[in-house]
């Protein structure tokens, strides 16, 4: 595939961080978001791990985009992503064993995280290596930001702690419900509701959902009618 024209590097990064935040706007990667945000340490570890995999996999997939046959592109993307996830796992196991144990199976599940595979399919396979790496950085920062927002609310108000350090004056007022699974859903829902209220339910512009951004556009040729419905 031909790469799209160069864009402002800062706009690419900020797009993933704010305009198309993968968790709060696109609502992707909700499984690790809910599972690893009971503590700030775990959230930060998951965010950095996913960001490293995003940057590296986007870069390699962009470099190989003209060499990978279209019919096997998804399996190839998964193999590339899995390779980087394995490297991150090994490094974290060696140098950050506490966070490695805290994340558990969710670290390995980065391989099938829809954010990473989605960016490979939607962006890295169509853009040059630099822009693809920047897209991975932006999406990774957006993912990390979302995890930290969730974890801050859940840890500070749920267990009266901040990065494991006790906050004495909050101890009598902590809401332990927030540290449990239902509390994660509650916090996530409230944040999404607030963002939708602020943006009037249109955090992402309507034009971003045109045929240009559809992974099936090449095969359907826009004949499915869905794009026309959106434009109408």
Shape: globular
Q: Termini separation (Å)?
A: 29 Å
Instruction: Report low-confidence residues grouped into runs of 5 or more.
Output: 1-5, 204-210, 225-232
Query: H/E series, N to C?
Result: HHHHHHHHEEHHH
Query: Could you state the oligomeric state of the chains shown?
Result: single chain
What is the number of helical segments per DSSP (H or I, 4+ residues)?
A: 11
Give the DSSP E fraction (strand runs of 2 or more residues). under 5%
Main β sheet profile:
2 strands, antiparallel
Q: Give, in spatial order, the strands making up the sheet with the most strands.
A: 1-2
- The structural class is mainly alpha
- Helical fraction equals 55-70%
**Secondary structure: number of strands:** 2
Mean pLDDT: 83
Radius of gyration: 19 Å
Task: Please describe what this structure looks like.
The chain contains eleven helices and two strands, in the order H-H-H-H-H-H-H-H-E-E-H-H-H. The chain has 232 residues and is an all-alpha fold. A two-stranded antiparallel sheet has the order 1-2. A hairpin with a 2-residue loop joins strand 1 (161-162) and strand 2. Helix 1 (9-19) runs parallel beside helix 8, helix 3 packs across helix 4 (73-95) and helix 4 crosses helix 5. It is globular.
Short overview:
The protein is built from 11 helices and 2 strands; from the N terminus they run ααααααααββααα.
Task: Set out the fold topology.
Elements: H1 9-19, H2 30-35, H3 40-63, H4 73-95, H5 97-103, H6 105-108, H7 114-124, H8 129-159, E1 161-162, E2 165-166, H9 181-198, H10 217-220, H11 226-231
Antiparallel strand pairs: 1-2
Helix pairs in contact: 1-8, 3-4, 3-5, 3-7, 3-8, 4-5, 4-7, 7-8
